[in-house]
């Protein structure tokens, strides 16, 4: 398939960077995969050796009914600060776009999940849409190619459910004795709550937290979550990737950060980009982590490609 570079523009209506879905759809109709990027002027680090990290875009609808793929300003600031080259993923060509990435960030968002994700066993008639399948395509390609992943909020839930066989609460408010405000009434409310860090896990190194500390603060805005670790022990089936618990909410034990260090997977239920935008370095380190893992992946992939070329060259010379 052919590709064409297109660029996000600042959209005042949404206070986000974005691009019209119509523009991307028109390219798709011509069998062209959109290579969606930030303008180069936004990057401080312009090194050609930096890794490429995919970011699955969100969506917004304007007052005139036109739909856009978007990325909020705090997300934009966080990913630009990693120093990685960012390639954006739409919902139609996700798998193809992921092929040229060394890692992926799956942000938060609202969409229907499959009924078997939830531990309550109910069928509420939910139907997965295009956005869900875009997340699934990105996760499957990254897992198949052994690329690192960072999941935020819904992105974390998707990785946990699809790869880790982790079940979810459909509603924290209804299913958990609620002691922590996981979802403020206003989306713009950056309300923070405590996390209990689990000793001996990689999160201390990832966030630059002193080994003697056992608590950090984070913000969140979610009403669905992965079930308590004790409940997860009763879930049938074998995960594709074993997920280790790194942190839980200190008041109610809800899973907050989990992952698999060897696989380069990190899942964060909160929204560290909001606090990173205020100068919180520990929260920015969560985004820096994926860029570091992507750089390692890129270097290993380049070495593997060179090795394969050498073997092919030797075989040709022997003929």
What does it look like?
- It is a single chain.
- This protein is α/β, with parallel strands linked by helices and 319 residues long.
- It has a single domain, classed as Class I glutamine amidotransferase (GATase) domain (Rossmann fold, 3-Layer(aba) Sandwich), CATH 3.40.50.
- Helix content is 33%, strand content 25%.
- The chain is built from ten helices and 17 strands.
- It has helices spanning 21-29, 73-81, 94-98, 130-145, 154-162, 172-175, 203-207, 229-232, 272-276, 281-318; strands spanning 2-7, 9-11, 16-20, 32-37, 52-56, 58-61, 67-72, 85-89, 103-106, 149-152, 168-169, 192-197, 215-219, 225-226, 244-249, 255-260, 265-268.
- It has an eleven-stranded mixed sheet with strand order 1-4-8-5-9-10-17-16-15-12-13, with helices on both faces. A four-stranded antiparallel sheet has the order 2-3-7-6.
- A hairpin with a 5-residue loop joins β6 (58-61) and β7.
- The radius of gyration is 20 Å and the shape is globular.
- The two termini are 33 Å apart.
- The model has no long low-confidence stretch (mean pLDDT 92).
